[in-house]
Amino acid sequence: MTTTESRVTGRNDTVTENRCQSCGSFVTRDFARVFGNNHNEVFGCLECMTATEVKKGGARAEQVDTAKLIGGREPLR
Q1: Tell me: the pLDDT tens digits for 42-56?
Q2: What is the pTM assigned to this prediction?
């Protein structure tokens, strides 16, 4: 672990990995680990998606087919 700008970072933890790639909002490392893709990248968060969309996998893909997530509703993005 290293300390960078008064912030402790792990081996794969960078500022860009802690941001939603869609809206730029901060997401925790644990959120990225659980809801992100295999590289801990998050393409949707609770600021730009509903909790249902996130839980059904919407945060892990750059392109999301919302019809499969919650019955065809237009995305919030």
Answers
A1: 999 999 999 998 998
A2: 0.62
The neighbouring-strand residues paired with 8 are: 3
| CA dist 15 → 34, 53, 68 (Å) | 17, 24, 31
CA distance 68 to 2: 41
- 3-state class (DSSP) for residue 8: strand
Element (H, E) at 4: strand 2-4
> Which residues lie below 8 Å from residue 66, measured CB to CB, with a gap of 6+?
53, 58, 72, 73, 74, 75
Structure tokens that stand for 10 in this block: 């792990």
Q: Tell me how far apart the alpha carbons of residues 46 and 23 are, in angstroms, rounded to a whole number.
A: 10
Question: What is the 3-state composition of the chain as percent helix, strand, coil, each rounded to the nearest 5?
Answer: 30, 15, 60
> For the residues 13-24, what does the mean pLDDT come to?
74
